[in-house]
Design a protein that fits this description.
Blueprint lengths: L1 H16 L5 H4 L21 E4 L8 E11 L4 E9 L5 E9 L4 E8 L5 E2 L7 E2 L7 H11 L9 H17 L1
Antiparallel strand pairs: 1-2, 2-3, 3-4, 4-5, 5-6, 5-7
Helix pairs in contact: 3-4
Length: 170
């Protein structure tokens, strides 16, 4: 009897110390780790695909389709080209983390078609910076619908094309 009681207490103790079932499937205790990023080739005009970033700006927004990379860390990375109505261009290599609606600047384009490291390269909430028209549109309606990253580069390109046609309909 005593031996059965001790065995029962040991079993109950083991169950009390055990991890809840399916914890790893539904809850992750692992911290998010950003993957290393390799810069793509500088954007080539023939690979640029325009999209509509909204009526709040008169700039033209384009993504280099050959630069789109979907990371296992839940970040979609791409080269963004912003052209003013006067023809001035800003080129950047950026990432959007769909789950948190954040963007990160990895590199800035130079006039000699090379990349330069930005002074600040950290994750920023897209909701807090008014000038992130393009990044908000890419996050909300193109690359991260419902905060879920697109499944492939081809899906990202199709979503960009749909965004381009949306500007014609407005």
């Amino acid at each position: 009897m005593r031996r059965t009681l001790i065995t029962l207490i040991c079993i109950l103790f083991l169950f009390a110390c055990a991890k809840p079932p399916f914890k790893d499937e539904f809850e992750s205790d692992k911290p998010w780790i950003e993957q290393m990023t390799q810069l793509p080739a500088y954007p080539d005009t023939k690979n640029l695909l325009a999209f509509d970033a909204g009526a709040a700006t008169s700039n033209h927004y384009m993504v280099d389709t050959t630069s789109i990379k979907i990371g296992g860390d839940g970040v979609i990375r791409f080269s963004l080209v912003i052209q003013s109505p006067n023809g001035a261009e800003n080129v950047s290599y950026e990432g959007i983390r769909c789950a948190t609606n954040e963007r990160k600047l990895y590199a800035l384009g130079r006039n000699d078609k090379t990349w330069a490291q930005p002074r600040i390269s950290e994750w920023q909430k897209l909701d807090f910076v008014r000038q992130f028209y393009a990044q908000r549109e890419l996050s909300k309606n193109i690359f991260c619908p419902h905060r879920q990253i697109v499944g492939s580069n081809e899906e990202a390109i199709q979503a960009l094309k749909a965004g381009m046609h949306r500007s014609i309909i407005r």
